[in-house]
Each structure stands twice: as C-alpha cells, then as structure tokens.
Amino acid sequence: MLHRVETPLSSLLRRRLPGYSLEAPFYTSQEIFDADMEAIFERHWIFVGVEPDVPEPGDTMTIDIGRNSVLIVRDDDNAVKAFHNVCRHRGARLVLEPKATVGNIVCRYHAWTYNTDGQLIHADHMGESFDPGCHGLKPVHLRSLEGLLFICLADEPPADFEDMAATMAPYLAPHDLRNCKVAYESDLIERGNWKLTMENNRECYHCAGNHPELTVPLFAYGFGFSPEQLDEQDREQAARYSCLVDDSSLEWEKEGIPSREIDHLDDRATGFRTQRLPLDGAGEAHTMDTKAACRKLLGKFTHARHGALSFWTQPNSWHHFMSDHVVTFAAIPLGPDRTLLRTKWLVHKDAVEGVDYDLENLTGVWTATNQQDGDLVAYCQQGATSPAYQIGPYSPYTEFLVEKFCNWYIGRMAAETGLVQP
After folding, report:
1. Looking at the domain 46-145, which fold is it?
2. 57 phi-psi bin (left φ>0, alpha ψ -120 to 50, beta other)
3. Which residues belong to any copy of the Rieske domain (predicted)?
4. What is the pLDDT of residues 321-343, one digit of tens each?
5. How far apart are CA 136 and CA 323, in angstroms?
6. Is the domain covering 161-416 a CATH 1.20.140.10 domain?
7. Which residues pair with 335 in a beta bridge?
8. Which one of 180, 279, 294, 373 is CB 3.0 to 4.6 Å from 346, fit for a cystine?
9. 80-89, pLDDT tens digit by residue?
10. Per-domain residue ranges for the chain?
C-alpha cells in the first residue's frame, strides 16, 4: 500500500471545514503561496488580457505570472500567439515593455532575432552545424474566448477549456470584443493574498456599506438576502426583483442575447459562471447615472437597456459586459500578501474620447469600487496575521459564491498535489 507523507499543506487541505473561511496559513504562508503558484497558476487556464491589447500585427504584450514571463504577440497573419519571454541563446528577457510594437523580436543581448511566429531567423557566429529550427521561442498554450485571452503554462492544460468556450461564446459574441479598443487600463496593488481578492469579488454582502458608487446601478435584492429576516414589504420587493430577472431574461433571449444563469464554479478544473442581470435606474450601464457611458454601442446591440452580463472564471478573473462597454478584471498574485488587480475598460473601436464617451464617467464606478475593495482586502490580510484569527462562517444567502471559490481551490490543490481527499 502506498503511504503518503502528511505535510502542513496536506493537513490543512484535509481539515478544511466546508462553509467556513480558510485557515490563516492559506493567506499568510510563503510555502502555501509557492504551492499556489505551482499547482494553480502554472497548471490552469489564467486570464491575462484581451485581443484589443494587441490590435495590429507586431503588437506585443508581456505578462508576468510568478517566475514566468509570457510574451503575447499578434503575428503577420493576424493570429494571436503566446511564447515564453526568454531568448533561446542564453536566457535573456526579450521584450521588457508591458506593451510594444515590433517588426521582429530582437534580443538586445546578442541580437538573436525571431519573427512573430517565434521562429529564429537570425543568429550570428553560430557555425555551420547550428540549426535555427531547433531554437525557436518556446510556445505557451493560448486560447481566445471571443476576444478574452487565456494562457496555460502547463505542458498539458486542462482539457475542459473548449467546453467552457462552447458554452460562453453565444453569451459573449453579441458584444464583439474583438472590435473594441482598450479605452483605459489601471493596475492596483492590493495588500492581500490573491485568494482574499477573489473571495471579496465573489460576494456583495459587503456592498451596501462600502460601495456607494457600485450600488447605484445594482438592485439591492441582487446582493442576496436572508428570507426569514424580511418583512412583508421586503418580501414583495424581493419577489418583484425575481420576476424582473426572469422577465428580462426572457425578453433578452428573444432578441438573441443569452442571459440565463450557468454555474460551474466548483465542479470542473476550468471553473466558470455567467448570468445577465438587469440594472437599476436607466438599466444601461455601471455608471453613476445608470446610463450608457458610450454613444457607440457594441456588436449587434441596437439599444442600451440590456443590463450587465457577468462572467466569472477560476482562478483569477471576472468581467462585466454591457451594451456600450466591457470591463475586465485579472488578479495576478505577487506574493503572499500582495496581488495585482488589472482592470481594463473597452469601448467600440471607432468611439472617440470626448465625443462618444467621457473617460471619467466610463471608469468612475469601478475605479472607486476597486480602491474600496483593495482597502477591504488589506483589512482581511491584516486580520489573518493576528493570533486571534480563526475561521468564520459564510452566509449561505450572500456568500455562496465565496464557498464555491474555496471548494474549487481546495479541490484543485488536493488534485494537483496528489492528495487523496477523505
């Protein structure tokens, strides 16, 4: 019989109590952070950007995932590809800028030169026996889901990405992300573990008291609620909201805009969830006046009142698709207590700033919300380092998606580290 050696991580995984927050080392330990990077971020599909990040042939974008630097480039045939950002000569970093435009990819150390297909096309002084064909850039698995870019650093990535893509493509296609442009991008360093960033995103229990901007376009009953605590008037309001969700979904689907909820957050390697929900007020966008932020609508939309389609992926992204603009979010771990939150706002590629949209109006709600969330994550990180910290119960009504994130994380860590769950 094979006997497995119990480690601190395996012990923590085994004793995780469903319905409760994770034990403190999951948020504070360097060893667990290193295990997260290897078992999660080097083996799963990670959201890193959008096709409009590299709109023209020769455009590049670099992304750092732990010890890996990845180069994303649009080649001369207009295809988007990904490579390890490492020269095959002596390992120098090739492209140093977050975004650049190149004719070829030239290593500034010894001028080894690669085309945008990753083929080595020039290397001086290497002798007649040298075979350039054996020294091309190392590829990284890349998939574009209707313009959302995902990479996987594993030799064999999870095979269920195509299932997610087939399910999600009809939901995302009406927004025509490939014909958008990045109107604005922001990077925020949150002073907390990446799992706290994701847990915070997966609930709106905290929204009413902390997000005065975000709660303007959102319905209060969309945050979740405890049925037994509602009085008769509140129950009537909750029932009206439920009917609004159902009626809106039927109306949108008649227009060819898929809207119904699909939830696979914790039952597959490539976990995801989606649903289109109505917005309050004018019902058009995540803006302070709840109206569309851009006059040029996206894709096939002929009017702006289509609520917001939310799309969550494990382990590191969430997205909001509206009729006039899209907001994407990527959480990239930097250390046990630091996480990069990268947000992009996209509008129609022909939209003109100052004419079709006002940048402050476009970005205002989520700029404020991101900073507020960053502060909350930092408070949780500080608490996790305290000797007084102990696991606490999740609300089954408003934190069920947090529980699904933790279920997914514990399950994937157990699978990827070879732990047989009890």
Report:
1. Rieske Iron-sulfur Protein (2.102.10)
2. beta
3. 45-151
4. 999 999 999 999 999 999 999 99
5. 42
6. no
7. 338
8. 180
9. 999 999 999 9
10. 46-145, 161-416
